Each structure stands twice: as structure tokens, then as C-alpha cells.
Automatic annotation (TrEMBL):
It comes from Microthlaspi erraticum. Its cofactor is FAD. GO terms for biological process: circadian regulation of gene expression; entrainment of circadian clock by photoperiod; nucleobase-containing compound metabolic process. It comes from the Eukaryota. Residues 536-549 have a biased composition (Basic and acidic residues). The lineage of its organism: Eukaryota, Viridiplantae, Streptophyta, Embryophyta, Tracheophyta. This is (6-4)DNA photolyase. GO terms for molecular function: deoxyribodipyrimidine photo-lyase activity; DNA (6-4) photolyase activity; DNA binding; FAD binding.
């Protein structure tokens, strides 16, 4: 084993700490944590084991094609993310093979498959990374219960995050801290800051006899039922630990860039060379250890004279991830407005047509539409680009429920992460964490500040590629002769704006004001009926205001 830092592996936070079984078979169940480096579950499974069964279970609900979904992919995930996952599995399999092992791929409902594996292989240890997502919390109870009742030792360390969210919640009196600053104060330095990380192995125990369980190689997309021409453009980001480490090394090779990293500064329209690391999909699948990333940043900070600090520094970004993991883990119904104590109750509008226009890049605002094309084609956008489209959908312009935007992101992002996605959608919709609903992103001037020529728009919306730059953010203002010359007639080749930003955002502010007042009056305990009444009132107000807005609407060519 090649170790990276200075302490012994016993300094890992184990969950639970268990004694070592020797001279027998072990099973390592990969779910996230798709890596060899800094993988304590793998380390523990391989130690003293005669045989090692490295398993990944393909859940057909997550992986197999569902033609009824709104974009190519399964019922749960867009095809970009499925491809990213398959690439990550291929890479993991190839690394395991170099160490004398391989990945055993099985198909089926993961809980049932795991129980069958335990029955068939008679292993002594079952090891898998602890996972705080509700899906795994439920699944893991079932598998752990079966394993324990069969005398199989279970080892499930916390290694997806820097901290164990339970520890922070316990330190905070049983509740998750609800602000980043209070999180930092309570969290302090993670123990992994000084842990020695196992980065590689000279070999792993051989795979035992796997009998008749229907073991597969990592499938291709086609084998899962996808066509080669499923997408017009694929994400440029390749999955896997090898890519993750390459990408990390490239990002941190420029120490000055790391030292001066300052978010939210940075250009959201930069797409040839993104302004941030694009390590999120690798962290999501655990192709990259957040603890290794953290140690790399620490060592750079030691080498430079001056560096930025949380919340804006690169290390501060990793801590945002921890913050959302902790609040998500400690908040019942974190992914819903209803029954979620930290979420303001807001009478969002139901409007399927508006939602589809936003989702399908047809709002008529090129900055918003281009970002949504990047989401569909690449599965990744800059943080501020995510801000703009999330604000536009919810409290900024359309007043549509954040849960519906969250669902679209959850499907299409390659870095889609349960805790971070829900947390940020609540943030952007002013439902939790952030409450300055008067601060709204303009779908026109915000992007223009960074990219006055509209290069980003022209790349992701080629229909506007010949539109002169003075009209690129508001093509409906271009004279018809200009639109004709640019081969883009607004209303025919590209949509008219679906709403007028100035009046729509004013309306949204008014609605948010009334909603906040109601939440305050009811001390946050807004019931279904209160919400229905307020929705009705806001609708009546809308009906009175609408004719005035229509009058103000510019005449479109
Ligand atoms: P960098 O700036 O290089 O940051 C390094 C790492 O820090 C990221 O890879 C990520 O793991 C973490 N990080 C950065 N910003 C945040 C943040 N605000 N909150 C939590 N962690 C952060 N990020 C996801 O990983 N998955 C999601 O599903 C997701 N959904 C989002 C939804 C909305 C509406 C918004 C506004 C943001 C969302 N983010 C999500 C957060 C953020 O936009 C991405 O993490 C970031 O843009 C990823 O790019 P990067 O790796 O280059 O980030």
C-alpha cells in the first residue's frame, strides 16, 4: 500500500468500529466511492482476506432506458450521467484488474442482489462506504440487518465526506447548523486533515469462486438499451478515477490559481476553459476522494504566502458541500417543501407549459436558454449559471415550484447530488438559507457583464450565431431586417420572450413579500389551507395586474 500523509489508518472515523476477521472472504460493495485511492472500505475488506469480491449492482430503475422520460435516459437519470457512471465503472474494473482482481457486476434490486451474494459466497466481512442519502439509508438497513443476523461483520466507514454529519449534528445539540458560518465554527478541522490516506496497493486478494450468480462485465450503453445516436451532443467530461486524478492534478498544478480562487468571482459563461474545477461529477460518484482533495489544497496553502479563505476559497467550496450534507442529513423531508421545517411555505404556481418552456430552452431569453442547453448537452454548468436559471424559474420570474426545477436538474446533471441539489434549490428560491428575495438575476444584463459578445449563447444556441452582439441578449429588439439577415426571426426560428422580466420580477417580489409576511405571522407554521387562501389571493391579484402588463409588453416583430 502507498500511503499519502502522516497518521495511521486507525484515525479514520469508522462507523461502526469493528474487530478484524482474518483468513476468509470479504465483499466490497461499490455504490459511490468508485475509486481505489483513499477508500477505507476497500482497505478494510482486503486486509487479511483470502478472497475479495468487489461488487457493483446495476439497478435497472436507475440504469435502463425509459423512452417515456422527457430526455434520453432511464426513469431516474439522463443518459449523460449513466454514461459517466459506466465510464467510472470501466475505469474501476481496469484498476482492479491491474491489482489481480476485477469488478463483479450484477443486475437487479440492489438489496436482494446483495443478500443473494452473502448467501452464496459465505463471506465473513461486508464492507461499503456509509451513505447519507435517504435511498441508501433505507437500503442499507435491510442489507445490514440480514448480514448481522447471518454473522457477517459489517464495516461501513464515512469517507464520502470530510466530516461525519452525525458528529456535527451531535455537537450542535442534535440539530444541523443552518448557516455556513455556524457550521464552520462547530465543525472545526476535519480529522482527515492529518490522516494518512492509502493511495494505492501493490495487489489485492484474488476474487473467490463466484458460482452461478450471473456475473457480468461492465455493460456498454448499447447493452443497457440505449442507441448510439441517443444524444446530439455528449458531455465532454469522461467518468472515472483516472480522469478525476488527472483533472485534480491539472487544477492544482497552478498554485496561484488555487491560492486566489474566489467564488462568486469567475466567469459563468466560460465554457472552453471553465472558471472552476469541474470536479463535482467526480466527487459525486466518489471517483475523487474529497479528503484527498482537501489535503492537496491544504498543502498548497502551506506553500503560498497568501490565499483566499472560506466561504470563497476552493477549500471553502468543499466545505459548502459538507454544510449541505449535514443539513440534509439532519432535516426530515429535506427534499420537499411540505413537512420541511427549514423551508418557507410558498404558494408556487402550477404551470406545466411554463415549466416545459424553461426546461426545453424556449423561454425566449437567450442567456437562460443557453444555460439550459448546456445542462441538457453537458450535464454541467457553472455555479452562477445555475443561480440564474434557478432564480428565473422560481422567485425571479416564473414563480414555479423549486421542486420541479430540482427534478430537472436531478435528472440532467452529471454531478446530481441529493443533498447539494436540494439545498441549493431551496437557497436560490429563497425557501431556506438565503432570504433576500429582492435580489434577482436579470436574464439580460447578468450574462452580458461577463460575455458582451454572446459567445456562450452563440455556442449553445447556434440559431443565434449570426445575431449582432447588440441584440444577442434581447433578440426581439432587433429590427426585422437584422433578424432576416441573421437568419433568425423571433417568434419563428427562436421564441419570443415568454414573460417580460421587469414586470414578472416585480410581481414575484410582491408575492414573496406577502408570503414571507404570512410565514412570519404564523411563525413558520403555515398550513395547507393558509397556503390555498394565499394562492387564491395572489391569483386574483394576477388577474387584475395582467391587462396592465399586456399593455406594457413591447410589440414583437
Ligand atoms: P468548484 O467551484 O471547483 O468547487 C469544488 C467542489 O466544491 C465542487 O465540485 C463541489 O463538490 C463543491 N461545491 C462547490 N460549490 C458548491 C455549492 N454551492 N454547494 C455545495 N457544494 C459545492 N453541485 C453538485 O455537486 N451537485 C448538484 O446536484 C448541484 N446542484 C445545484 C443546484 C443549484 C440550483 C445550484 C445553484 C447549485 C448546485 N450545485 C450542485 C452546486 C455548484 O453549482 C456545483 O457544485 C459546482 O458548480 C460544481 O462545479 P465545480 O466542481 O467546478 O465547482
Amino acid at each position: 500500500m502507498r500511503r499519502f500523509s502522516v497518521c495511521s489508518p486507525s484515525s479514520y472515523r469508522l462507523n461502526p468500529i469493528t474487530s478484524m476477521a482474518t483468513g476468509s472472504g470479504s465483499l466490497i460493495w461499490f455504490r459511490k466511492g468508485l475509486r481505489i485511492h483513499d477508500n477505507p472500505a476497500l482497505e478494510y475488506a482486503s486486509k487479511g482476506s483470502e478472497f475479495l469480491y468487489p461488487v457493483f449492482v446495476i439497478d435497472p430503475h436507475y440504469m435502463e432506458s425509459d423512452p417515456s422520460a422527457f430526455s434520453p435516459g432511464s426513469s431516474r437519470a439522463g443518459v449523460n450521467r449513466i454514461r459517466f457512471l459506466l465510464e467510472s465503472l470501466k475505469d474501476l474494473d481496469s484498476s482492479l484488474k491491474k491489482l489481480g482482481s476485477r469488478l463483479l457486476v450484477l443486475k437487479g434490486e440492489p438489496g436482494e442482489v446483495m443478500i443473494r451474494c452473502l448467501q452464496e459466497w459465505k463471506v465473513k466481512k461486508l464492507c461499503f462506504e456509509y451513505d447519507t442519502d435517504p435511498y441508501y439509508q433505507a437500503l442499507d438497513v435491510k442489507v445490514k440487518d440480514y448480514a448481522s443476523s447471518s454473522g457477517v461483520e459489517v464495516f461501513s466507514p464515512v469517507s464520502h465526506t470530510l466530516f461525519n454529519p452525525s458528529d456535527i449534528i451531535a455537537k450542535n445539540g442534535g440539530k444541523p447548523p443552518l448557516s455556513y458560518q455556524s457550521f464552520l465554527k462547530i465543525a472545526g478541522e476535519p480529522t482527515c486533515a492529518k490522516s494518512e490516506l492509502v493511495m494505492s496497493y501493490s495487489s489485492l486478494p484474488p476474487v473467490g469462486d463466484y458460482g452461478s450468480l450471473g456475473i457480468l462485465e461492465v455493460p456498454t450503453l448499447e447493452e443497457l438499451g440505449y442507441r448510439d445516436d441517443e444524444q446530439a451532443e455528449w458531455t465532454p467530461f469522461r467518468g472515472g478515477e483516472s480522469e478525476a486524478l488527472k483533472r485534480l492534478n491539472k487544477s492544482i498544478s497552478d498554485k496561484a490559481w488555487v491560492a486566489n480562487f474566489e467564488k462568486p468571482k469567475g466567469d459563468p459563461s466560460a465554457f472552453l476553459k471553465p472558471a472552476t474545477t469541474v470536479l463535482s461529477p467526480y466527487l459525486k460518484f466518489g471517483c475523487l476522494s474529497s479528503r484527498y482533495f482537501y489535503q492537496c489544497l491544504q498543502s498548497i496553502y502551506k506553500d503560498v504566502k497568501k490565499h483566499t479563505s472560506p466561504p470563497v476559497s476552493l477549500l471553502g467550496q468543499l466545505l459548502w458541500r459538507e454544510f449541505f450534507y449535514t443539513t440534509a442529513f439532519g432535516t426530515p423531508n429535506f427534499d420537499k417543501m411540505k413537512g420541511n421545517q427549514i423551508c418557507k411555505q410558498i404558494p408556487w404556481k402550477e404551470d406545466h407549459e411554463m415549466l416545459s418552456a424553461w426546461r426545453d430552452s424556449k423561454t425566449g431569453y437567450p442567456w437562460i436558454d443557453a444555460i439550459m442547453v448546456q445542462l441538457r448537452k453537458w450535464g454541467w454548468m457553472h455555479h452562477l449559471a445555475r443561480h440564474c436559471v434557478a432564480c428565473f424559474l422560481t422567485r425571479g420570474d416564473l414563480f414555479i415550484h423549486w421542486e420541479q426545477g430540482r427534478d430537472v436538474f436531478e435528472r440532467l446533471l452529471i454531478d446530481s447530488d441529493w443533498a447539494i441539489n436540494n439545498g441549493n434549490w431551496m437557497w436560490l428560491s429563497c425557501s431556506s438559507f438565503f432570504y433576500q428575495y429582492n435580489r434577482i438575476y436579470s436574464p439580460i444584463s447578468f450574462g452580458k457583464k461577463y460575455d458582451p459578445d454572446g459567445k456562450y449563447i452563440k455556442h449553445f444556441l447556434p440559431v443565434l450565431k449570426d445575431m449582432p452582439k447588440q441584440y444577442i441578449y434581447e433578440p426581439w429588439t432587433a429590427p426585422l431586417s437584422v433578424q432576416t439577415k441573421a437568419k433568425c426571426i423571433v417568434g419563428k426560428d427562436y421564441p419570443k420572450p415568454m414573460i417580460l422580466h421587469d414586470s414578472a420580477s416585480k410581481e414575484c417580489k410582491r408575492k414573496m413579500g406577502e408570503t414571507y409576511a404570512l410565514n412570519k405571522k404564523m411563525s413558520g407554521k403555515v398550513g395547507d389551507e393558509d397556503l390555498r387562501d394565499l394562492r387564491r389571493k395572489l391569483q386574483q391579484d394576477d388577474e387584475q395586474v395582467e391587462p396592465k402588463i399586456r399593455k406594457q409588453r413591447p410589440r414583437l416583430n
